[in-house]
Amino acid sequence: MKKLFFCLSLLISSFVARSQNQYNIIPVPQKLTPLTGEFVWEKTTTIVSTSEFKDVANLLNEQLNLVSGSSKKVIVKEKGLASSAIQFVKNEQLGDEAYTLKASSKQVIIAAKTAKGAFYGVQTLLQLLPTQVFSEAKVEGIKLAIPNCTIEDAPRYVYRGLHLDVGRHFFPVSFVKKYIDLIALHKFNTFHWHLTEDQGWRIEIKKYPKLTQIGSIRKQTIVGRYGSGKYDGKPYGGFYTQEEIKEVVAYAKTKYVNIVPEIEMPGHAQAALAAYPELGCNPDKIYQVHTTWGVSEDVFAPREETFTFLENVLTEVMALFPGQYIHIGGDECPKEQWKESRFCQDLMKREGLKDEHELQSYFIRRIDKFITSKGRKMIGWDEILEGGLSPNATVMSWRGEEGGIAAAKENHDVIMTPGSYLYLDHYQADPKTEPLAIGGFLPLEKVYSYEPAPKELTAEQQKFILGIQANVWTEYMETSNYIEYMVFPRACAVAEVAWSPSASKNYADFTKRLKTHVERLGKLKVNYAKGFLSTK
Ligand code: ACM
């Protein structure tokens, strides 16, 4: 009897602990105070919003209507609080991406200065509800209850990015939109869309139709690991029309996600050269879209014709993408062809450039000047430091943090994306148990342990670290299903590093919250990696 009583009390206490522990939010908010009681979305509950936040309120309303089978409408009210409602109100005192959320048994109030802040409030609110709220259809008998609490939240970094390489493998608009949904759910604010590669040019450019007619299709693809010497013999291609790009940009806007387009130069240009060989160092060469992985020797020649071409391409790109940043690549540009080119060597003499790194810097500076003249900002991978950093460049530090540290010391903005912490193409578990990947070893815990503020920088210099980004290179990711497996849940850890205060980082607590969070990902039909579930 005593034993039974003991077991019963254990059961009750664990149930109470679980029911008190319903604040499984990722990324964890800056400040959360649990309160007793709950708010329940009843038949009579309404959503009330100022007109400024109406679109955000509608997003919430649509999801709650969907899962509860109701057909309520958002009530627009500029002033005054209603009872029994979820309310969106303005608070001028908050930061641009900040929000507060107060849930009491009577009402839930989300306050923000901007619609974007209110949107993040909604992401948190959804994570306070039962995980079935993420379902794609009506859930019979769902109780939409929110545990009472007060939350004050704002991001640690202003730039929180997730990248996708659609050059090595192409992914349709439907998947890109799903990816954007997942970006927004995790309070990332940037989608870095890597649109051109040696292995495929993926964006329609009206002035240069051959970029997609020729450059988007490779005649076959290497099978297995780089260097296998085996090919599948099957043409592979795909590209986004400008109409599709506009559709994605408009969609991302509704989720408060900015898209940073990347057009690679002067390297990773083989697909472009297959279409327009006159822009290469050897116009007589028969260039083909690259069929294997790795870095191609075929790079743009720094001729006037090339600059005209790239400026025309960038003009169309800037018309499609309204955000401030334009990424120009700049990584992994082999210099052999420039060394062997009479034109390049003469140009270097004329311009007083002492080596090919300075020639690359000359190339990037010209592009920087053009992008800056259009009121935009140029981003490049950290190789753009070699030969001298262009005046307005933002640096994406990928070969470790050294490039980012050097750039910050020169008062340049930096986005940290070091390969050893934030390359989600690396293995997440023992390669013997995993599908083929590029290499490396980056388990969830290591991603979570990343600290973006280098000790080498002073407090003043730290301000140049705008944030972080995880990169997803797709040489070995042929399907969207496999992308999801590689990206989640590691991107959840990236989101917490980017958003949450470093003082609140706690891996054990994160994985506990993650166990609930992946139920949400399951409802959203995300093929997340389940390995972490079998660890403690
Ligand atoms: C890169 O990973 N080549 C930027």
From TrEMBL:
<feature type="domain" description="Glycoside hydrolase family 20 catalytic">
    <location>
        <begin position="157"/>
        <end position="501"/>
    </location>
</feature>
<keyword id="KW-0326">Glycosidase</keyword>
<dbReference type="InterPro" id="IPR015883">
    <property type="entry name" value="Glyco_hydro_20_cat"/>
</dbReference>
<dbReference type="InterPro" id="IPR017853">
    <property type="entry name" value="GH"/>
</dbReference>
<dbReference type="Pfam" id="PF02838">
    <property type="entry name" value="Glyco_hydro_20b"/>
</dbReference>
<keyword id="KW-0732">Signal</keyword>
<feature type="domain" description="Beta-hexosaminidase bacterial type N-terminal">
    <location>
        <begin position="22"/>
        <end position="154"/>
    </location>
</feature>
<comment type="similarity">
    <text>Belongs to the glycosyl hydrolase 20 family.</text>
</comment>
<feature type="signal peptide">
    <location>
        <begin position="1"/>
        <end position="19"/>
    </location>
</feature>
<dbReference type="InterPro" id="IPR025705">
    <property type="entry name" value="Beta_hexosaminidase_sua/sub"/>
</dbReference>
<dbReference type="InterPro" id="IPR029018">
    <property type="entry name" value="Hex-like_dom2"/>
</dbReference>
<dbReference type="Pfam" id="PF00728">
    <property type="entry name" value="Glyco_hydro_20"/>
</dbReference>
<keyword id="KW-0378">Hydrolase</keyword>
<protein>
    <recommendedName>
        <fullName>beta-N-acetylhexosaminidase</fullName>
        <ecNumber>3.2.1.52</ecNumber>
    </recommendedName>
</protein>
<dbReference type="InterPro" id="IPR015882">
    <property type="entry name" value="HEX_bac_N"/>
</dbReference>
